[in-house]
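Deliverable D2.4 — example input (structure tokens):
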């Protein structure tokens, strides 16, 4: 009788082409459940009648129009930057097919969001060339982009050795930069500003479009945090105080970048909202993301925009270095 072949513990990381070619049995139910919900959430930008918002846009102040244009200038290229982070920095290094299914749907959603923001630029009387150039010409916007590019550069310049501790750290850094910071703090900050117009009965259809984007992004955030925690649980060698401090500092540095950016977004403020208000919300978001990764809140900030709470469901808290699989389950099926 042949001796038993030892079975390796399952790992969500792996770069073998022949790995992850069978969906069943599903090893990470949370990934497949998020995939099913993402499919159920499928939508298309032109289903929203943005033309009905033109009358609102025409009577808005220059400062209000600037805010909408500024947001589109940031969102448009950064949706595609997230796609690069997924394609180069996540998908090639994950071997669970259920995770690949979700990532494929997420990449489609990022493309769909880009088309949605193009639709806004096409519909509203916005100087599109100026909007396109802003992510390069506006220093605070360019600084945020450079922050993200720094983390994806490692994956685009050469193949990541996911078997090494440093390679795994780079994988986690990229996830934190894009899923937690860019999508979970920076995007949510912009969503709040975009949806603030509907709070004043303006741009209601634009607000509906943003609702659909937020619904997608909430799943992106859940997937990203679950993936970070899974990698940490399966790779205890990453669980050092030094690495924890680095991840925490990444989030705090990102808050500083966002606060400066928001002063360019609303240099003088508009009715009911100004840069200080947005930045208080940014600090609240950062505290929630820190807690979702198992850290203590840093700013102890209250939520100034409680009307946004429905878009900010807090995940079950799991310590960054004591991740347990039981907290990953997500009630993802639609009723």
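Example output (designed residues):
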């Amino acid at each position: 009788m042949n001796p038993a072949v030892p079975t390796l513990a399952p790992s969500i990381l792996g770069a073998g082409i022949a790995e992850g070619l069978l969906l069943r049995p599903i090893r990470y139910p949370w990934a497949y459940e998020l995939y099913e919900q993402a499919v159920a959430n499928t939508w298309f930008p032109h289903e929203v009648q943005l033309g009905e918002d033109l009358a609102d846009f025409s009577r808005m102040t220059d400062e209000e129009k600037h805010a909408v244009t500024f947001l589109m200038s940031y969102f448009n290229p950064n949706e595609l930057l997230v796609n690069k982070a997924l394609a180069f920095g996540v998908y090639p290094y994950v071997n669970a097919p259920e995770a690949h299914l979700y990532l494929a749907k997420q990449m489609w959603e990022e493309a769909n969001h880009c088309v949605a923001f193009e639709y806004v630029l096409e519909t509203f009387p916005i100087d599109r060339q100026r909007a396109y150039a802003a992510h390069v010409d506006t220093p605070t916007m360019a600084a945020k982009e450079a922050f993200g590019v720094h983390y994806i550069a490692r994956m685009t310049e050469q193949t990541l050795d996911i078997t090494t501790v440093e390679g795994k750290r780079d994988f986690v850094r990229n996830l934190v930069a894009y899923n937690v910071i860019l999508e979970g703090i920076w995007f949510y900050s912009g969503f709040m500003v975009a949806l603030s117009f509907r709070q004043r009965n303006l741009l209601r259809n634009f607000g509906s479009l943003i609702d659909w984007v937020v619904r997608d992004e909430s799943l992106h955030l859940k997937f990203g945090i679950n993936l970070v925690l899974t990698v940490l649980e399966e790779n205890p060698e990453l669980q050092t105080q030094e690495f924890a401090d680095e991840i925490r500092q990444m989030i705090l540095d990102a808050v500083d970048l966002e606060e400066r950016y928001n002063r360019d977004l609303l240099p003088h403020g508009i009715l009911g909202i100004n840069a200080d208000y947005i930045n208080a919300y940014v600090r609240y978001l950062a505290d929630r993301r820190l807690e979702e990764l198992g850290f203590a809140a840093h700013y102890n900030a209250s939520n100034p925009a409680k009307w946004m709470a429905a878009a900010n469901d807090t995940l079950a808290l799991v310590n960054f270095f004591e991740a347990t699989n039981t907290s990953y389950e997500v009630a993802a099926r639609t009723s």
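Residues 165-199 form the longest helix (35 residues).
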